[in-house]
């Protein structure tokens, strides 16, 4: 029952976040004021006017998102990975029989045939798939934290709306959880039980823990083609986002010297105004593909990412067009050759 509530709340949250953006994006004059209100919450940095900074925080607070994300994603990844290792082994028969024989001949490592057969293979596969998705998310948030600390040099004048800040904190809490929400309750219960056992029995009373490292890694290698294709798409977007962020970071250094905004060039900036947003969409498309495209929660997460980034990218594109008379006309906002 609690598991259903966790999944249901996450889905409701993604829908609640996406619907206002979709409504504000409709081309109706009656929605102009609503569009302006929502855009006021989403604006940050160069597209946020100084007069709009009453309810705002420094844009350098972006690093808070990634500190939270790294801590939270690491916790979820480690606990889910260990839970998968202990309760959802994906052993082939060739590996299963030696493990049974080893146990029968006195191997101290615990092995339960009933545990192995009580969890359907499909569920065991899905648990390891969640581990895989969390590891992809870990790569993303670690890189974003590095960029926030060492690539971007936010000026003291750069601001973002307080609601945008709170939305970012929510996103980097809910997004990793959405990747493993079907097992979050079981994982947390398992982790709590392990901690309680340690407290009750003490260190000396606990059985010596022997890690079978192949048991941690081999199941990930047994995942199917969709996980690895998704990982390739993820890495493609991941690399291009880093390149685009490096370009923006170098422009900000030049801006401090010249006190003027510059038109970015290079990589995907040649085709869109916000290639770092395009790359983010590609990254989450890779995660969606790696999930097998069968989980509604991850679909809703992806739709929120697309709606939010396209919405902000459109305003960024308009800002570039107003700011620079010689802005490249062939560039689109965020979707190459389309929008």
UniProtKB/TrEMBL annotation:
The chain crosses the membrane at residues 12-41, 61-84, 162-185, 281-314. It comes from the Eukaryota. It is a multi-pass membrane protein. Keywords: Membrane, Transmembrane, Transmembrane helix. Pfam families: Steroid_dh. Pathway: Protein modification; protein glycosylation. This is 3-oxo-5-alpha-steroid 4-dehydrogenase, C-terminal. It comes from Dillenia turbinata.
